[in-house]
Design a protein that fits this description.
Elements lengths: L11 H11 L1 H8 L11 E4 L7 E4 L2 E2 L1 H5 L4 H4 L3 E7 L4 E6 H17 L7 E5 L4 H13 L2 E4 L6 H11 L3 E5 L1 E4 L2 E4 L1 H10 L6 E5 L13 E3 H7 L10 E2 L3 E6 L9 E5 L1 H13 L8 E4 L6 H13 L3 E6 L9 H8 L2 E6 L1 H8 L16 E5 L5 H11 L3 E5 L9 E2 L16 E2 L5 E4 L13 E5 L10 E2 L3 H9 L8 E9 L5 E6 L3 E4 L2 E4 H9 L4 E11 L3 E10 L7 H19 L7 E4 L13 H8 L14 H10 L1
Parallel strand pairs: 4-17, 6-7, 6-8, 8-11, 11-12, 16-17, 16-18, 18-19, 19-20, 31-32
Antiparallel strand pairs: 1-2, 3-13, 4-5, 9-10, 14-15, 15-25, 20-21, 21-22, 23-24, 24-26, 26-27, 28-29, 30-31
Helix pairs in contact: 1-2, 5-6, 7-8, 10-11, 13-14, 16-17, 18-19
The structure holds adenosine-5'-triphosphate and magnesium ion.
The site of adenosine-5'-triphosphate has 23 residues, from β20, β26 and β27.
Length: about 625
């Protein structure tokens, strides 16, 4: 099914891309016109201290102003924030004018608690409008927000409190998952107790879901303050382009999370450019990213990107299959969503449901479905594009970059995509595939490390919060001969310039001297028609060093008996044999109902591997379903 057509750029993409690499300063000076500058910048880029890159030096702007105030004249009475919750069965629409007021109220609350420019505010909240207000309020007054995903437990939360040292924490009594309230406050109290640093104030949104204890003098009620400050006017604080807008910790799939620190001006420009050239965002239309504000996709494409582009943004609290698998498509229909952004993991969840839900609603407003966050296998991509009849646009990026590195940039030029490939380099990203030892570019179709030549374009991380040395050491020191940014992902570039991501550099297994990417084996197993999802890990083996072991979820919900499982296992091994060769054949294929993943949908391969080898799986606070590891253990037994 791989598209055979050569990459036929009519030149538009290639010209734009080439200019962005050849003359980054000229290119990004022009893109800067996409946003409002209170004071023009003096220097487009200061890269005198590589690998650090300061964009738009001397310029003054504000993320909140660009997201909200700037649209008041034209879009004041048009929707800005569309809150849909299938958890508490609520829907609320805020116009730009209403959002403007709510943000000022929230900003006034923070100011009342002494928050000033540069102070940190930690946001530990479910997907409710107040979370958006709080983020934008921080941006408005120059406070640095650090959103911590609501699913994290006290241990992870405590380490983030310790690291970010917030003056105020904004939280809520509870989130809700599958209709069940999940208390936040006890976890927050416990986290604060564990942390040696103590925040001065806690601002609590009381949703009335779970009663909680209030600490006198420290905890404040959002609703009461909102009443008191209902007409507050809080002017925008103009910030240096290079000031810090937020800290966001990576999901920690590969170890200790890093506090990714982002700027103000470069981020605003990068998002505005991405909305135009990648996401085909149009002012006045609706954008729906199904992620969570706790992740980078939530920051860039639930909050800032769409609003900067003058779009309404959907904030959805709920699961993709509740009340039924039609819910996303109903939202698309009801709110005339023009751009939908989700993750392959969520699509795989839908794949297990009745496909009739996908054709039940009017999707005529929808231009494309964007997917990011993990590899998009061909089967899943084929399935969803067939089911909804819309273009599927894979895009590859990281918390660190803040916006896509690889994508077909449909807003620039309609180029054909290739199944299994997130596309071609995005303007501004000088992406290469490098030999891990020599740092020399690999040949066409030769596997190497996906790396980016500095300086990174606007919008990427400035540094690791409070730790410049860790930034340089972690990201820029993989190659001995020169300083290049490593993505820590394997990839290849084909003869047409399309990239393929082959998994993380630390997800490699070594079978009798053959180095195999777990992702390649997973891709092969996924092509078996009965398989919905699969994880492959390398497990220590006395003879071969390591062997591949697969854990698969079947499409059919019906349990398989032992004979059926044996047959399926043999079939799957045959598929791998024929596609990749016998060395890649998994030693065993086990069938499970759920795989251990982070709450952002990323496979916890290291934990699976640890369980398989009888080791401790490590810190499991980010795990989506704690029973998943038990299933792995049982399957092996
Ligand atoms: P940590 O860095 O703490 O281990 P993480 O890497 O899982 O966490 P993210 O920044 O959210 O946290 O994930 C980025 C990674 O996700 C990429 O480096 C890549 O491995 C994977 N990824 C993202 N999008 C795609 C995509 N479209 N195709 C393939 N892989 C993708
Ligand atoms: Mg990472």
């Amino acid at each position: 099914m791989v598209e055979q057509a050569k990459h036929q750029s009519n030149g538009t993409y290639q010209n734009l891309y080439d200019e962005s690499i050849r003359n980054p300063k000229g290119f990004w000076a022009r893109q800067a016109d996409l946003i409002h500058w209170q004071k023009p910048f003096e220097k487009v880029l200061d890269d005198s201290k590589p690998p650090f890159a300061d964009w738009y030096v001397g310029g003054e702007t504000n993320l909140c102003y660009n997201a909200v105030d700037r649209h008041l004249d034209q879009l004041g009475d048009k929707p800005a924030l569309i809150y849909v919750s299938t958890e508490v069965n609520q829907e609320k629409v805020y116009t730009f004018r209403q959002l403007h007021q709510e943000v000022q109220i929230a900003a006034a609350m923070l100011q009342k608690m002494g928050v000033k420019k540069g102070d940190r505010v930690l946001i530990y909240m479910p997907m409710i409008p107040e979370a958006t207000f709080a983020m934008l309020a921080c941006a408005r007054i120059g406070a640095i927000h650090s959103v911590v995903f609501g699913g994290f437990a006290s241990h992870s939360l405590a380490s983030r409190i310790e690291d970010a040292k917030p003056k105020v924490i904004v939280s809520a009594d509870a989130g809700s998952r599958a209709g069940k309230a999940v208390a936040y406050k006890p976890l927050l109290d416990e986290a604060i107790a564990r942390s040696s640093y103590k925040p001065g104030h806690v601002l609590m949104v009381n949703r009335g879901l779970v009663p909680f204890d209030t600490v006198k003098g420290r905890d404040h009620d959002y609703a009461a303050l909102r009443k008191e400050l209902a007409t507050a006017k809080v002017p925008v604080t103009w910030l240096e382009a290079t000031d810090t807008s937020y800290i966001l910790y990576t999901s920690g799939t590969t170890g200790k999370p890093k506090g990714v620190q982002r700027d103000v001006g470069g981020y605003a420009v990068a998002l505005a450019a991405s909305m135009k050239y990648i996401f085909m965002g149009e002012k006045g239309k609706t954008f729906f990213a199904t992620s969570d504000i706790g992740w980078v996709v939530g920051h860039s494409y639930i909050i800032y990107g769409p609003l900067i582009a003058g779009m309404a943004t959907v904030m959805y609290e709920g699961l993709p299959i509740r009340p039924d698998a039609g819910i996303w498509w109903k939202i698309v229909q009801d709110h005339k969503v023009s751009v939908l952004f989700s993750a392959p993991t969520a699509v795989r969840v839908l794949k297990k449901q009745d496909p009739a839900y996908l054709s039940k609603y009017d999707l005529s407003s929808l231009k494309a479905l964007f997917l990011a966050g993990e590899p998009l296998d061909e089967t899943t991509s084929d399935w969803i594009s067939g089911a909804i009849g819309k273009p599927i646009v894979d895009n590859y990026w990281q918390t660190e970059t803040g916006w896509p590195i690889l994508a077909i940039q449909r807003g620039v030029e309609e180029m054909p995509g290739k199944l299994g490939s997130p596309g071609v380099p995005v303007f501004g990203f000088n992406v290469n595939v490098l030999n891990e030892d020599t740092a020399q570019p690999c040949r066409t179709n030769e596997k190497g490390v996906v790396a980016i030549e500095g300086p990174l374009p606007p919008g990427c991380m400035q540094t690791v919060w409070g730790d410049d040395e860790r930034f340089v050491k972690t990201y820029w020191s993989s190659f001995k001969t020169r300083q290049v940014y490593s993505t820590f992902d394997w990839g290849i570039r084909d003869e047409d310039g399309y990239f393929f991501i082959l998994g993380r550099t630390d997800d490699v297994i070594n079978v009798a001297g053959h180095r195999l990417g777990t992702r390649e084996i997973e891709e092969s197993i996924s092509s078996h028609p009965a398989v919905a999802e699969v994880a492959v890990v390398g497990v220590a083996d006395q003879v071969k060093g390591q062997v591949a072991v697969a854990f698969a979820i079947l499409k059919s919900a019906d349990a398989v008996n032992e004979t059926q499982a044996k047959t399926l296992e043999a079939e799957i091994m045959k598929v791998v044999d024929s596609q990749l060769g016998a060395v890649a054949r998994p030693a065993r294929v086990y069938f499970v109902n759920v795989l251990p993943k982070t709450r952002s949908g990323k496979l916890l391969r290291r934990s699976i591997q640890a369980v398989c080898e009888g080791r401790d799986p490590g810190d499991m606070t980010t795990i989506e379903d704690p029973t998943a590891l038990a299933q792995i253990k049982n399957a092996m037994a």
